[in-house]
Amino acid sequence: MNDKLDDAVSLFSQALGEKNVIHGRKLLARNHGYCKGSLSAGILLLPRSTEDVARICKLANTHGYSIVAHGGLTGLVEGTASAVGQVCISFEKMKKIIDIDPDQSVVVAEPGVVLQDLFEATEPYDLMPGVDIPSRGSCTLGGLTSTNAGGVRVIRYGMMRENILGLEVVLANGEIIDATNRLIKNNAGYDMKQMFIGTEGTMGLVTKIVMRLHPIPKSTICSLVACNGLQPMMTLLRRARASLDAQLLSFEVMWPEYYALTTAQPDVGAPPIKVGYGIYAVIEITGSDDEDSSNRMTHLLESAFEDELVVDAVLASSVAQRQVIWRIRDDSDAIETTCEAYLSYDVGMQLQHMPEYVDNFRSRFLENYPDRTPYIFGHMGDGNLHIMFAVSNDEFGDRRTFDDIVYDSLGSFESTTISAEHGIGLEKKAYLGRSRSEAYVHSMHCMKIALDPNNILNPGKVF
């Protein structure tokens, strides 16, 4: 170990106990998640309480260490990357579900709670969290909060921001801010929680989360549909919104290259719909009972067939078939079977601009890489597309050409974003000015300086 790392191990071992300071071989044995540099600091702290987190922040602030917070390590923008001279914090020992209030439809939980565990804990109350993402088995509530995660049900329940009522947060100087509001309506002064949601651990460290819960739908019906192109799919989305209203739970699209990739995985079996159509979508709706939901979905699809919007469709007839359909949509990790590395992008736009954006992007991509395949999928109902490329290790290290193709294609449209839900981290901060004005970014700087004047919380990320 170098002297700085030795000193950090000694300092934080005295504060937390040796078993809660991970370094050396024990650290090397741990999974770095989607960010290869997550553990590069060489030291990982395991606080057990809010008071431990406050103690860490006070020591770091006094002794010149910066802090990188870790959740489930499922982020895709290098937001958990660390370096020597920093300390990482994992909230894996702060995973209590403190209270479930079925009358208020509220849960209070620590940041290390895994999303899947929260689903299981609230199910006996016929309640569930509104946010759901494919990595639900490993992502944590703290990570979801710090990135303002979205997922596959935003069209119905909104993003993490819409589902959080209150937070407890430790500031850079160790001060604890108790904003654990449980009320839906509370206008007593500033809504301080908004300062910490989606700020990627740069403003404060979240130690408790108060979330709204939602009734588990009595019935859920899932279908997989195929259209010849994006325009008829957009018409189908408008029709689904008009006819289903609040019953529409998800509307997820997959371009044919992505659908071919994920249905080719060994554990999928025969594709529910043949490969080769112009675009595919997973549509999920809820209702008061199975018959009602099934009738509504059937009516939607029948009218779409009559008007030649849909060319093929499958209605899931069992839980197993529904799981296969969602497996096809969720399995973006299948790209790892085709390449040394991959790049993942997360853009957003108004729906009216989506067809032209995709055409512009595809044209530019084929000009530069005529023999390569882009994989496009995402949350069409939210105007959010994910784009992935299979690349070499060298291309992963120098991604500027790919960045320019994706982001330049957004340039001719109003109200776009380089990050609809993944955040900025390290990967996107050079492009932040394409989505936020100079005055906006300056205001972000001012907020950061006010709460973290010594810049110890996840420095170098976002801007």
- CATH architecture assignment of the largest domain: 2-Layer Sandwich
State which percent range the strand residues make up: 15-25%
Low-confidence stretches: none
Query: How would you describe the shape?
Result: globular
* Overall tally of domains: 4
- Care to count the β-strands? 17
Q: What is the CATH level 1 assignment of the largest domain? A: Alpha Beta
| Secondary structure tally, helices | 15
Q: What profile does the largest beta sheet have?
A: 7 strands, antiparallel
Helical content band:
25-40%
The name of the CATH topology of the largest domain is Uridine Diphospho-n-acetylenolpyruvylglucosamine Reductase, domain 3
Lateral arrangement of strands in the main beta sheet: 14-11-13-12-16-17-15
**Helix/sheet category:** alpha+beta
Summarize the structure.
By secondary structure, the protein is α+β, with helices and mostly antiparallel strands. Helix content is 33%, strand content 22%. It has helices spanning 3-16, 24-28, 50-63, 115-122, 141-147, 154-157, 160-163, 230-244, 256-263, 290-306, 319-330, 354-368, 393-397, 400-408, 438-451; strands at 21-23, 43-45, 66-70, 86-90, 97-101, 106-109, 127-129, 164-170, 176-179, 205-215, 219-227, 248-254, 279-287, 312-315, 341-348, 374-379, 384-391.
